[in-house]
Amino acid sequence: MAIYTRTGDAGTTALFSGQRVSKTHPRVEAYGTLDELNAALSLCFCAVASEPHRALLESVQQQIFWFSAELACEDQAPAPDQRIISAEQIAALEAAIDTAMGRVAPLRSFILPGRCEAASRLHLARTLARRAERRLVELCASVPVRHELLRYINRLSDCLYALARAEDSDAHQRNIIQEVTTRYLASAHAPSAKEPAMSLSFQDLHQLTRTAVERAQALLVPVVVSIVDANGTETVTWRMPDALLVSSELAPKKAWTAVAMKTATHELAGAVQPGAPLYGLESHMQGKVVTFGGGYPLWRDGLLIGGLGISGGSVEQDMEIAQAAIAAINVGTHQ
């Protein structure tokens, strides 16, 4: 059976009532834009990673069919068995918005559309939903349109925005995990080719702490010295008198970060800037990671044996104190 009828060759189309109107009629423009939106939603469905998002998008696609069918029925009330947009579907969109926005950090400025494919497609669909809303408002100027339809299309654009934010956030978190994993594995060594894992000796711990304190005293900067083992477990924390209370939190975090990332903390600063591979690492790790100077991994013979964190002075002073302590024992800060 041919799909072409030739009845539209003159620039008109038929409504459900059989009445023929121009293809530029506001009613046709409205449900035609919904058709565009539904096609865009199918691309969103294929791209999103979240299963709940996929289920929601599939439901919305069905609802867009109901919406379009109602618009195509000029001067006719919906049939008793016809599915229509109601407060139930609007409430479902609002619940989805609240859930998605509850998972992402608040924004205080405009953002560029998505940074992953799923979010980009959702943002594109959002703009089509806004256009459909404008066409619907235009149609309302000449014919009655149920208020629920206006409310639904307005909430739908908000919902697509919220889903885009959530998909972007999830994709970014996956990228961070992948980047951290890649860095960790790149610096790993086969245990069979090495001696049994070494650790910092009592003499090492004593010398590190003593030298750090002596250098801090020379600079007139009271600091907290923290040393962790190769697993990030705290082994020594020494707080000099009058050291800032916050330093008791920061020094262990610097030492832990240096071991967890196998990188000096000041070297992470560039990697967490917007657009860099680890952007958002600090917030995703809930403040456990520190990305300013004063933390160093401790390597010996190619093995990671611990981490040192200094906090209390300026970033430069913390780094100077840490470097002085490291120089006092037989370790390096790079593999």
From TrEMBL:
InterPro entries: CblAdoTrfase-like, CblAdoTrfase-like_sf, PduO, PduO-typ, PduO/GlcC-like, PduO/GlcC-like_sf. GO terms for molecular function: ATP binding; corrinoid adenosyltransferase activity. It comes from the Bacteria. Residues 3-166 form the Cobalamin adenosyltransferase-like domain. This is ATP/cobalamin adenosyltransferase. Its EC number is 2.5.1.17. Pfam families: Cob_adeno_trans, HbpS-like. Signal peptide: none annotated. Keywords: ATP-binding, Nucleotide-binding, Transferase. It comes from Enterobacter lignolyticus (strain SCF1). It is an enzyme of class 2 (transferase).
